[in-house]
Amino acid sequence: MATKADVVSRIESLLVALAEADDGRDAERDYLVASCPDRLESTIRQMPTVAIHVLAAIGEGETNVVGLASRTGQLKGTVSKHVQRLVEAGLVHRGPVPGNRKEVRLTLTDDGAILERVHRRMHAEKSAGLREFLTRYSDSDLQTLATVLDDLVTSGLSVWRPVSGRGR
């Protein structure tokens, strides 16, 4: 039977292998490009991931920057910056709110709606694949995995980052 130290070493090796399995390509972005009209390729390749997630949140329903910040959990300034990029890319339209000269309503353009639908479909496919993969494990195994992942996320992954850059 393996010791706790042996299991911890195996977990560390597996995390390294999982991180190294990423060949540097952005599979999600490749999926979006392959599934959208060619005219959107450059926009998709240049758009920050956060901006694509802001676009997805706008796709959940007409909103404004404050509502969007609340929906996405991002700061209002961050959302404003990404909304500007999305507007400049022709994916989002800013329009007035009737009776309110100060507030701006955000909606998707036709191209924005296309990208949002493809993005939503991509996440649904990824979720379905993960759920199917995880069905092979017992409830107890899944609870342990969830606990470990919760702890890693809560730690801010600080346990996985180098302690300092002075190891030379």
From TrEMBL:
PROSITE patterns cross-referenced by the UniProt entry: HTH_MARR_1, HTH_MARR_2
Keyword Ion transport tagged: no
Residues of the HTH marR-type domain: 8-154
Any GO BP: response to stress
Keywords per UniProt: DNA-binding, Transcription, Transcription regulation
One function term, GO molecular function aspect: DNA-binding transcription factor activity
SMART domains: HTH_MARR (SM00347)
CDD domains, per the entry: HTH_ARSR
Official protein name in the record: Transcriptional regulator
Species whose genome carries this gene: Mycolicibacterium obuense
Lineage: Bacteria, Bacillati, Actinomycetota, Actinomycetes, Mycobacteriales
